[in-house]
Design brief:
Number of helices: 9
Number of domains: 1
Helix content: over 70%
Distance between the termini: 31 Å
Radius of gyration: 20 Å
Number of strands: 0
Structural class: mainly alpha
């Protein structure tokens, strides 16, 4: 894990140098943005809606019994924005787009396409990694923002169906509890998660050696490693902003 983290840091530095050199093509970034975030949008929004619906079902009855049903909207808002939306969306994108990144680069590595790039005196890390890192860091927060809205709206719908909570009471609680700082932190999380997905999965694919069997193994490993690093980053960000920051 420590050695792999070192490889990720080295590749990140190389990608930053490649970015500052001005060699990144805008079309490549757009293509990767579509592959990473746009194509993952439906599954991400579905997961956000279902997660919010399940949480609402779990808490609605207890809140109603204690006379606190007016706070359901605020509770769902805090849970979705602080943790569920950025975490679940990142996991969905990692499972779908992250594994695709790893498999694509691993296949290029085992078929000597990476060596062909080197013969053209082009840095393969910068060429392959940089557009993916930019796309992940910039577009995952957009998906998370949509997922937060869908989750909060889904909570309203389920609360209205299950305990007949009026939408006006629900949204009043949402606006009362909503804090800009939480939104900013959730978008920061999403950006870090998007960067980590692209960086970890691309690095895992780039380090692949062998043939088709190793490509499959590398893809599985990329999904595991990206999840571990995202959870660790989530812990660090929460520690900084919600514990140390308070």
């Amino acid at each position: 894990m420590i050695k792999f983290l070192g490889l990720c840091v080295q590749n990140l530095i190389k990608s930053l140098k490649y970015l500052l050199s001005g060699q990144v093509r805008f079309s490549s970034v757009i293509s990767q943005a579509a592959s990473i975030s746009y194509d993952s949008l439906p599954i991400s929004l579905i997961i956000a809606f279902i997660a919010a619906a399940v949480i609402t079902i779990q808490v609605a009855k207890q809140f109603l019994m204690s006379g606190a049903e007016a706070y359901i909207g605020g509770t769902i808002t805090i849970v979705m924005i602080r943790e569920i939306a950025p975490g679940f969306v990142a996991l969905a994108i990692g499972a779908r787009a992250g594994t695709a990144i790893s498999a694509e680069i691993a296949n290029m590595q085992v078929t000597s396409q990476v060596d062909a790039i080197k013969t053209l005196k082009v840095d393969p890390v910068g060429y392959y990694f940089t557009p993916r890192l930019i796309a992940g860091a910039l577009t995952v927060p957009m998906v998370v923002l949509l997922a937060e809205f869908i989750g909060i709206a889904g909570g309203m719908l389920v609360a209205n169906i299950t305990i007949n909570l009026h939408p006006e009471r629900y949204w009043y609680s949402v606006w009362a509890w909503l804090v800009n700082r939480d939104i900013y932190i959730s978008l920061l999380k999403a950006s870090v998660f998007g960067l980590l997905i692209a960086l970890v999965c691309a690095t895992q694919g780039y380090e692949t050696k062998g043939g088709a069997k190793e490509v499959g193994t590398s893809t599985t490993q990329a999904a595991i490693l990206s999840t571990v690093y995202m959870l660790f980053a989530d812990f660090i960000i929460n520690l900084i902003f919600y514990i140390a920051g308070s």
